[in-house]
Specification:
This protein is an alpha/beta fold. Helix content is 40%, strand content 16%. The chain contains 28 helices and 21 strands. The strands form 4 sheets. The chain has a 7-stranded parallel β-sheet, sandwiched between helices. Strands 16-21-20-17-19-18 form a 6-stranded parallel β-sheet, sandwiched between helices. The longest helix is centred in the middle third of the chain and has 27 residues. The chain is globular, with a radius of gyration of 30 Å. Bound molecules: adenosine-5'-diphosphate (ADP) and magnesium ion (MG).
Length: 741
């Protein structure tokens, strides 16, 4: 079938939009923004792919919106042609079987060549009975059944006395095979062009399979023949098709094996995506490394004061990590280091020591937390230590009062504030430091590669220390952080005891509550985690509010509640009461999953544990066992448990090794969930699946390095071809780090 689509106007608005950007900041953080107008235009050859899907036949604004939700996860942005192309089929419908009416199998999809015999409309006044069309082939009879039929339409598509091909699911009814609302009815001529194998895509409400399938097949026609950016040595031994061909094959599976992620076309596209990601990260790194860093001169007396103020001594790993970081800071190169350490290993302190060092050297430091709650907590724990060391620390979040903001901004500008703690909103606003030298980013795994690029853009001359509490497998570190230097905290502080972990059926809730009563009476503190507070949720999740009311009737005023819908002040108050011991049992949603630190809390109860990811449970469990006291974790599950669910909970009981848990989680659930990015909405891969393509990731990383070694500004022909690849996967931000040319 030949389709013609009118060529859309050329894409010209990009430059204008960027030039209109107001200069937001006047520190060195802002320089990449100012340079933005140098950003190269998207290669013209890609223009057709970046049009709204509205250019496709029969797609209007409403469908474009629905498709946007389906393929981009966005309620506000329309889908573009490229978004459809990267939406993968997960199954197929095979219409190749033509068994003949008499041999049709109940419940199976098949195709029949029927002679149309008779139309039997429902009796007038009884619209609930269907409209029947009878037909036959050489083997026997078959009925076609339609509800709410339009007689005129059916008379036209199924003319009596003629032959039609019909395809759909067969049901046997009173010894006659019938088909209710056939999927396809076509004449012999059209049948020749009808694909007998149809891909099946993940769908969203309001969108029909037919409409989507048609839109995709038009979209595939728009894919231009692009220059090959992959190296022969990668392509040839693997028999991979070229990009255009790979997309065509992706959307035209002929057999189930074509849907396998290891099929050549899928592997090729996955490799493209991985290479684009690795290349973007490598470019960013190259840019940061090239920029002249500043050697920070300090003797370490300030950070020693912090150590002196601690009631404990540093672990061996903490000391090693600090030594590595201090060496980086003293070097006249930029630092880009990942501090990886399991929950409770004491990363915050390492970050604080690094900040103390740069302040001693005469600069300022910023500490970026993923949530308001954590920003406040970090501020509260750091403040006394800063006081002891003579450091001036302040906090700034998106929700502060204007007067506070003003004071903080003034203090930063004049240099009266040494350390600023905040959420990432902090770096988006017009906050200007006098002399920012170091940004510490806590829990960065919650941001994807795109955010990572944006962050680097904001910290051009600044050293960066990224801390992550989720023990991420190496493949994922590479994917999300690229080639960073890595420090690891391998051990927990001395004296920590293993957390006694048990899984208990929710049926035994009463016993759990009795046990809790005893524990709280003896002075312990407990968290009680519920999965969601979403009334609209169809699943029968116990909402935190309900559980709170229920536990309050047992534990009285000692019961607290914290969840994501509360205002920051309310959350703050709830955390403070729990910390001080005013409340002894804190009912919470997963807002406490990451980072929350109340060392004398020793009991963690998780309701509906079977619904959480393993790494998430590990994080939650990490909220206890933060002191030398004995801690326990009770995983309440709803019986009966499936086999996988049981296996998952068992892993938690067996080990506290976050790395092992993360590997298992990756194996059982897929990379998006491990990183918690499904929930936070950060982008994950569209094509690649790390459970299958992990080996390709390693190859892509090496190739990305090699590409930049040979052609640092991507000026050769291949460099330009690879820029196209970056655009295709939305990683063109990285291109502006290359020299224009
Ligand atoms: P995470 O690595 O999960 O972010 P934190 O930085 O929150 O861990 O530290 C966990 C707890 O351990 C905190 O209460 C912190 O004060 C404490 N801590 C940090 N380092 C040590 C240490 N060397 N010895 C004992 N406790 C420590
Ligand atoms: Mg932490």
């Amino acid at each position: 079938m030949k389709r013609s689509i009118t060529k859309p106007p050329q894409f010209v608005s990009l430059n204008l939009q960027i030039c209109n950007n107001p200069p937001e900041m006047n520190t060195d953080l802002a320089s990449p923004l100012k340079k933005r107008h140098q950003r190269p235009m998207r290669p013209e050859i890609l223009t057709p792919l970046y049009q709204s899907v509205q250019v496709l036949p029969k797609i209007g604004p409403k469908l474009a919106g629905l498709l946007g939700r389906l393929t981009r996860g966005s309620d506000t942005e329309e889908a573009r042609v490229i978004d459809l192309l990267f939406h993968r089929p997960y199954s197929l419908i095979d219409r190749q079987r033509q068994p003949g009416a008499a041999n049709a199998v109940d419940g199976e999809i098949a195709t029949f060549e029927l002679h149309i015999d008779q139309h039997i409309p429902p009796p007038p006044g009884n619209k609930r009975l269907p409209y029947r069309v009878t037909g036959h082939d050489q083997t026997g009879e078959m009925d076609l059944v339609f509800f709410h039929a339009h007689a005129a339409y059916l008379e036209k598509t199924l003319p009596v006395g003629e032959t039609r091909y019909v395809s759909g699911t067969v049901e046997w009814f009173r010894n006659i095979p019938q088909m209710v609302h056939p999927d396809h009815i076509v004449s012999a001529e059209d049948f020749a062009a009808m694909p007998l194998v149809e891909p099946v895509y993940p769908m969203t409400g309001g969108l029909s399979r037919k409409i989507f399938g048609r839109a995709v097949s038009y979209a595939v026609d728009l894919v231009p023949d692009l220059p090959e950016w992959l190296d022969k040595t990668i392509l040839e031994p693997r028999n991979w098709p070229e990009f255009q061909q790979a997309l065509i094959q992706l959307h035209n599976p002929k057999a189930l094996s074509d849907l396998e992620p290891i099929s050549p076309h899928h592997s090729r596209l996955a490799y493209d995506e991985l290479l684009a990601t690795q290349l973007a990260l490598a470019i960013t790194r190259q840019k940061m490394k090239k920029q002249k860093g500043v050697s920070r001169a300090f003797s370490g007396t300030t950070s020693q004061k912090i150590i002196a103020a601690l009631p404990f001594s540093l672990t061996h790993s903490q000391t090693t990590a600090i030594t590595q970081i201090e060496a980086d800071l003293r070097k006249p190169e930029r630092m880009l280091r990942l501090l990886q350490g399991d929950v409770g290993s004491g990363k915050t302190l390492v970050g604080l020591m690094a900040m103390a060092d740069v302040v001693e050297a005469g600069f300022q430091a910023g500490f970026m937390a993923p949530t308001e709650l954590l920003a406040r907590q970090h501020f509260q724990t750091m403040q006394p230590l800063c006081d002891a060391a003579g450091l001036r620390i302040a906090i700034l979040t998106g929700k502060d009062k204007q007067s506070h903001r003003k004071a903080v901004i003034g203090g930063l500008d004049s240099g009266e504030i040494d350390i600023l703690v905040g959420t990432h909103a902090l770096f988006q606003e017009s906050v200007s430091f006098r002399d920012l030298a170091l940004i510490v980013v806590d829990e960065q795994h919650r941001f994807g590669v795109h955010q990572r690029l944006a962050l680097s853009a904001k910290g051009v001359a600044v050293d960066v220390l990224v801390m992550t509490a989720t023990p991420i497998p190496r493949t994922l570190v590479l994917t999300y952080f690229g080639d960073m230097d890595v420090s690891k905290l391998m051990e927990k502080p001395a004296g920590r005891q293993p957390i006694d972990t048990r899984s208990v059926s929710q049926d035994r809730m009463d016993d759990v509550i009795i046990g809790l009563q005893r524990a709280l009476a003896s002075g312990q503190k407990a968290y009680w985690v519920c999965p969601l507070v979403e009334e609209a949720e169809i699943l029968d999740l116990t909402s935190a509010e309900e559980r709170f009311a229920n536990l309050k009737s047992v534990f009285g005023d000692g019961t607290g509640l914290v969840h994501g819908r509360m205002t920051p002040a309310e959350k703050d108050a709830a955390m403070r009461s729990f910390k001080s011991g005013e409340t002894r049992i804190l009912v919470a949603t997963t807002v406490i999953e990451v980072g929350v630190d109340v060392p004398d809390a020793t009991i963690m109860v998780v309701e509906h544990a079977e619904r959480f990811g393993l790494s998430q449970l590990h994080q939650l469990r990490g909220r206890v066992g933060r002191s030398t006291g004995k801690s326990s974790c009770i995983l309440l599950y709803k019986a009966p448990l499936g086999e996988t669910a049981r296996a998952r909970l068992n892993i938690l009981r067996e080990t506290e090794d976050g790395f092992r848990i993360a590997e298992e989680d990756l194996r059982l659930r897929g990379e998006g969930e491990v990183l918690g990015i499904r929930q936070s909405g950060a982008p994950t891969f569209r094509i690649a699946d790390l459970q299958v393509h992990a080996e390709l990731l390693e190859i892509a990383r090496k190739e990305a390095r090699l590409i930049l070694q040979r052609d640092p500004d991507m000026q050769t022909q291949r460099g330009h071809d690879l820029r196209i690849l970056l655009y295709l996967f939305g990683l063109d931000e990285a291109i502006r780090y290359l020299k224009a040319g």
